[in-house]
Amino acid sequence: MTATPDSRAFAIREIPFSRQGSWFNISSVTAQHSQAEDLHLVSHQNGMHAVLRFVPLDPSSGARARTAWTATPAMLAWEGDAGRIALVYESADTVRLRGDMLDLAITPADQELTPFTGTYFYRDPVDGSYHFTSYETGRRYRVTPLGGAVATAEGLEGLAGADRRLVLSGPRGWEAVVEEIDSARQPYAARGDFAAAAAAHAGAFRDFADAVAPLPAGEAPAAELAAYVLWSATTRPAGLLRRPAVLMSKHWMDKVWSWDHCFNALALARGLPDLAWDQFQIPFDHQDESGALPDSVTHSEILFNFVKPPIHGWALRRLRERLPRQPESAELRETYRRLGRWTDFWLRARTAPGLRLPHYQHGNDSGWDNATTFDGRRVLITADLAAFLVLQLAELAELAKDLGESDAAERHLGTADAVQDALLEELWSDGRFGSRSPHSGEVSTSRSLLDLMPIVLGERLPREVADRLAERIAEHLTPHGLATEHTGSPHYLSDGYWRGPIWAPATVLVEDGLRRAGHTALADEIGRRFLRLCETSGFAENFDALTGEGLRDRAYTWTASSYLLLADGQHSRSAASGPR
């Protein structure tokens, strides 16, 4: 995806059409790395499921019409030579459709219906609406034709492989509404005409964008699109998610992972502080008895088979700096308690007897799933983990001070110093950080950027350590950004997940640490290259470090948030320095 002169337009094949609060989107992406010929209604309740397929038809022949898709944050359209179909959100669970000189067939995404899978189709005798009932999502999709629409149904109440479809048409145009509902709802009553729905949809996005991306377009040309990626991926509370949640994507990465959420919280903090605070707290709502955070949370699933790194102290410090107002004392005290339990998890459940530093049980715990740091061993004491824990303990000390608990503050700082001392004494050698097996004590090194992440300690690092880390980080810098595996490594892979591609969170963490360690020129250059990368290649999950090509999921919220964070920082520094 390339940012176009009209920054409002985007490629629907890369970014789904949706809106804040909705649990479904319209997209041709129907599964991981799977592009369909037609646009589908894709729900994220009970997982990612393509439910309905939309096929534009030629009114004269009934055959598929040749159309092109156009999408902006305000409206999605099928554009044909002679006609047009437009779609807008009327509310989070309702879309309005309007057709002119084109008909539309709505069918189940999968025509096969079994006792346990598929979509059942029937007409409701109460109001005459048409219902597609999905086993996979556990929801109903009600289609109500509006004035001027002619609805032709096939396969009503059919089973097995019966051909089920609803065709909407009208000689002078037609309109209809599609709703995602739980079980039953009053018959649809229009809240206004199509134009009013379109205006309300556009206005809702405009308000969001103005709040989270108030940057001059010339400085951050992709800021509005980044705001749309965040807005469209936000869901209302439902299922296991008790708060409004920014999913990592409304493609297949439709979860909240327990470190991704931190970057979204930071990007939202200045303009939408309540939504930002909710993002930070989501994983803590599901903290277990040991203090561990889940690996991920989504509508109907919580996973604890792995965890994620304790970057939450780092994130909370920056979140509190960015919030226009501080949380009330009771909320701050509860956050202090939660963060303390998460810290104790690492100090107790993940620190072996007699050892001074905690360990990961797998690369997945680090967030850098397959990084070469873990090639020799998966259960490993790593430098990044210790560094993050130092920052978390330091933030606990700040919280304790704010809450009037000076003794606790001194205790947290003492533990932070002890962990940092162990980090430098046990893992720093010959100008580099290594990793250590908690079983054998054997030390290993790699050419992964992960081994350089202690730069996040910033001003806490001894000068000679910070300088050497900065030198090595600079060796990872390509024309597009920071490669997660050194490009000269024999293990480098262009699309190797954490074995080469550029990632947003690593970029933000390194940029911040370098800046606080005094290496501002390198931090500035890393930020500039990442901004340019997103403006050229969009908000992909990660990027080819040598070509800049977007990889994997192409509508990833932490990438969009990282763009907004870095752009905001660049703008603030420029404003502070005054005119040149």
TrEMBL record:
InterPro entries per UniProt: 6-hairpin_glycosidase_sf, 6hp_glycosidase-like_sf, Glycoside_hydrolase_63, MGH1-like_GH
Keywords: Glycosidase, Hydrolase
SUPFAM superfamilies to which the protein is assigned, alphabetical: Six-hairpin glycosidases
EC number annotated for this UniProt entry: 3.2.1.28
Enzyme type, top EC level: hydrolase
Residues of the Mannosylglycerate hydrolase MGH1-like glycoside hydrolase domain: 255-559
GO annotation terms (biological process): oligosaccharide metabolic process; protein N-linked glycosylation
GO molecular function terms listed in the Swiss-Prot or TrEMBL record: alpha,alpha-trehalase activity; Glc3Man9GlcNAc2 oligosaccharide glucosidase activity
UniProt similarity note: Belongs to the glycosyl hydrolase 63 family.
Name the record gives this protein: Trehalase
Organism: Actinacidiphila bryophytorum
Organism classification: Bacteria, Bacillati, Actinomycetota, Actinomycetes, Kitasatosporales
